[in-house]
Structure formats: structure tokens, C-alpha cells
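Data deposition worksheet. Section B asks for the primary sequence of the deposited chain exactly as it was used as input, without tags or linkers unless they were present during the calculation. Section C holds the resulting structure in C-alpha cell form. Section D is free text for depositor observations; keep each observation to a single sentence. Incomplete worksheets are returned to the depositor.
Section A, Depositor: J.P.
Section B:
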Amino acid sequence: MTAVWVAAGFLVVIGLIDLWVRLVYHYPRRPHTTTPAAVGIPFNEVRFPTRRDRHLYGWWIPAAQEAPEPRATLILVHGWGRNVERTIPYVRHLHRLGYDLLAFDARNHGSSDPDRYPNLLMFSEDIRAAVDFVVQRAAGKPGPIGVIGLSVGGGAAVHAAAQDDRIDRVVTVGALAHPVDVMRPEFQKRHVPYFPVVWLTLEYLQLRIGTRFDRFAPVNVIDKARARILLVHGEDDVVVPIAQAGKLARAGNADTVRLWVIPGRGHSDCHEEPGFWQRIDAFVREGAPSRRA
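Section C:
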């Protein structure tokens, strides 16, 4: 009987941890209410496959002008709990700069398929699925491919670039260096003791994800990325503190990773900085190959 009670107690603990995780990290899943058409930009709704037989919803936004050579394509990635609508300011400005654009909802967000626990690794898998879509759309001969990721989407873009050499450029805005570095302060704000509650929660999350946080933390893989990376971070960011950007910059290759700290900006307003779009455009175009073999 003792073994039965131990097993029952274990299941109760697991159930309580699962409920706790769902309550802490729950976010309302909302589809977009605005599209690029609201700012006068034509687009096509698309769906494309990702891991685990799921499908992603997105917007394919071709550049306004035809070009003799394949143009650069920028993949736009929202952050945690957001949806494709968050990228509209980026769509508006980058479209007029002549890029093909693909913006999409990650799994468990917006109009894309649901899946198990959302996490940074899942975002990265979806980014690589978006790269597949771009390559297939170009019949295997795309122009340069870049990713602009916001918050968790930025961290995931770094991880995706470390796994996929087809990504030429990465721009992150408010990216995290390590998931635990962002999660632990949230528990501290709620005065939750690290042991055993936070420790058990982190262990349980890693069990459900299927791997350790250290395995996919952007700070631990950024040096493996072939892509040039621009880390943009607001100095006053309280969601993902500026120290996270410093960790990423120090861990990256000094020849390919740059850090741009914007004074007076927070987590969601860096794109409002004067000269922001010109600097992003210059970074993406700098030394970019005009054509892929």
C-alpha cells in the first residue's frame, strides 16, 4: 500500500505543478484584428507546415516593385502572447524599403495551430519552417533571408540561425539570453521560494519540453550562428533587462554580432527611435550576397 500512496502523492504533486505552470504562463490566445491592408499594403494569407504536423498562419507580403535578382526576404516574428498583428509597424516601414516579407503566428498564438507548451525552442522550429516556406516559394533559389524577432521571437531567431545556415541576417529587439534568467525574476516578484517550488517548476517544464533550457538558450548557441546578428535593446527594458543583451553580445562572435543599446527606450518601443529603420536597412544590406547558389 505504501507504494500506492507514494505514487498517488507523486501524481498529485505533478498535477499541482502542471496547474501552477498553466496559471503562471497562461496568456489569452487572440487572433489578429488588423492586417496590412489597413495601412494600404497588399498581402496574401498563407498557411505552411511546421513540426509535429501542425500548420502556421501568416502573411506573405511581396515587395511593391519587381527586381531582376531575387530580393532579400525578411521573416518577422512576434513575441510571447502576441500575434502577427504586432509586426504591422515593421511591415509598413520594411515594405517601402523594398523587401519581401513573411510575418506569421507561432504555434499556440493567433491563428496558428495549437500544440503542447509554447517555448523558445518551439518558436525556433517555427522560424525554420518559415525559412522552408520562403525557399520553396522561390523554387529553391531565394535571395538572402533575414529574420527580425521581437522579445522571445528574437531569442528564437538567434537559436534558429545557429541551426540553419540559410539565415543570413538576424535582428533581435529585446531578446532574452536565457529563459531561466527571465522566468526566475517573475517568480521572485510573486515571492515564490526557489526551493522546492521554482526548482520543481523549472524541472517540470524541461521535462515537458523534452530538453534542458541550457541546450537551446540563445546565449549558449549564438557563437554557432553563421549569420550576422544585430542585437537591439532598450536601455530601460524592464521585461527583458539590458543585462540580457550584454550576455548575448559577449557570447557571440565579435566579427558578426553587434549590440545597439537605445537610451530611453523600453521593451516595445525601440522601433520608434529616430533612424531605426535606416539602421536596420543598412545592416541587412551590408555585405549581403545578391544571389544564392
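Section D:
The first strand starts at residue 44 and ends at 49.
The radius of gyration is 20 Å.
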